[in-house]
Amino acid sequence: xxxxxxxxxxxxxxxxxxxxxxxxRWMIEFSVQRPCSYGSPGDEMRLFLTEDGYQAAxxxxxxxxxxxxxxxxxxxxxxxxxxxxxxRRHP
Length: 91
Fold this sequence. Notes:
Blueprint: E1 10-11, E2 26-32, E3 44-49, H1 51-62, E4 66-75, E5 78-84
Parallel strand pairs: 1-3
Antiparallel strand pairs: 2-3, 2-4, 4-5
């Protein structure tokens, strides 16, 4: 299986305007496991999220609708601390 970074991701482009919005705090890359509002099973996605959006994504992961592969903090448009998900060591 190829790494998620080598695939074409749906959702937000790495330079999406959402990345530079004042309330954006997180970037996540994930795969969709079950049909949900994020997409269809097998979709590989990237999203830039507010804190509320990030919490909603964590809840979707708990419901096994998505699996977060990587996450990073976003501060003033800068993507920081890009990390693979090691059994959900999210703050």
